[in-house]
Design goal:
alpha/beta; 7-stranded mixed sheet; Rossmann fold; globular; 286 residues
């Protein structure tokens, strides 16, 4: 794994190759203004789903995390609602009767597309708050220990590694295994036997999403969950087509949600041997 990380780092990083540029893109005040605007957006559908799940991340905690890891300079509107959904539905899943009956072992959560670490931290927080053993295995081509600018409010302090960027959340990062590389090169080497919950958000091509899905599918049991980000027609058609293909396979019940015209999600629940999984109490997905 170390040799793989070195090869990827040589290919993508080094002098003049920082993915987000060699200088801050804005002043802290610029990022703060973007944060305040995005924090004021309303998402009534997600409010209802969060309430139905019966578990919600503490808003101030979530917004502080988003300020450092989700507020970036880009053309589309900022949106960190997937963090709310990941926390709520993972928490609901962990505490469900089926989960308690079936899972004597620690939870293994798998994520592709770590980016700045926002989603991983949200899922780690759900594990901690539920007081259950488990960890998140997350991978990205971005390295964990390479100092660079991240297009975020912290950039005014100079280059930081992701490890530095997430230093405010030590309990959460202790639950996370950060790996570097592409899904196709890293997954065959992981040695994971079970994946109870997965969040797929790396390369958005049809082939890459299906490759990640098949890896997870082969390590899941009935009732296990895959969460897909960016299921947005016209923006990420590769993800949309992949989810449709997975649905046609018939192994998972899939529910979709559109948070905005630019951001959609899908929740896939593994079926019970040819039968639909009964909806969890309080869930309004589907």
């Amino acid at each position: 794994m170390k040799n793989l990380a070195k090869r990827v780092k040589r290919k993508f990083f080094g002098p003049g190759k920082d993915p987000f540029g060699n200088a801050p893109r804005g002043e802290p005040a610029d990022y703060l203004q973007l944060f305040l605007e995005a924090k004021g957006y309303s998402f009534p559908e997600i409010d209802v789903l969060e309430q139905s799940a019966g578990h919600a991340a503490e808003p101030d905690w979530l917004n502080e995390l988003a300020l450092h890891t989700q507020v970036v300079m880009k053309r589309s509107k900022l949106n960190w609602q997937h963090g709310r959904l990941l926390y709520s539905f993972l928490s609901q899943f962990i505490r469900s009767d089926a989960s308690r009956e079936r899972f004597g072992e620690a939870f293994t959560i798998f994520e592709t597309g770590t980016a700045r670490g926002f989603s991983s931290i949200c899922m780690a927080k759900a594990l901690i708050d539920a007081e259950v053993p488990g960890s998140i295995v997350t991978l990205d081509t971005l390295p964990h220990d390479y100092p660079m600018f991240w297009n975020c409010i912290d950039d005014h302090e100079g280059k930081k590694s992701r490890q530095n960027l997430l230093s405010q959340w030590p309990a959460e990062t202790a639950r996370i295994i950060f790996l570097q590389g592409t899904s196709r090169t890293v997954m065959p080497r992981l040695g994971l036997a079970r994946i109870q919950f997965a969040f797929l958000d790396a390369q958005h091509t049809l082939g890459d999403v299906l490759t990640e899905y098949r890896y997870v599918r082969d390590r899941q049991l009935p009732g296990d969950i895959i969460f897909f980000d960016d299921v947005t027609p016209g923006h990420f058609d590769g993800v949309v087509d992949a989810v449709q293909s997975i649905e046609s396979e018939g192994l998972y019940n899939i529910s979709r949600l559109e948070a905005s015209p630019e951001r959609g999600y899908a929740l896939a629940v593994r079926r019970l041997r040819g039968h639909d999984v009964p909806p969890q109490k309080g869930s309004s997905w589907g």
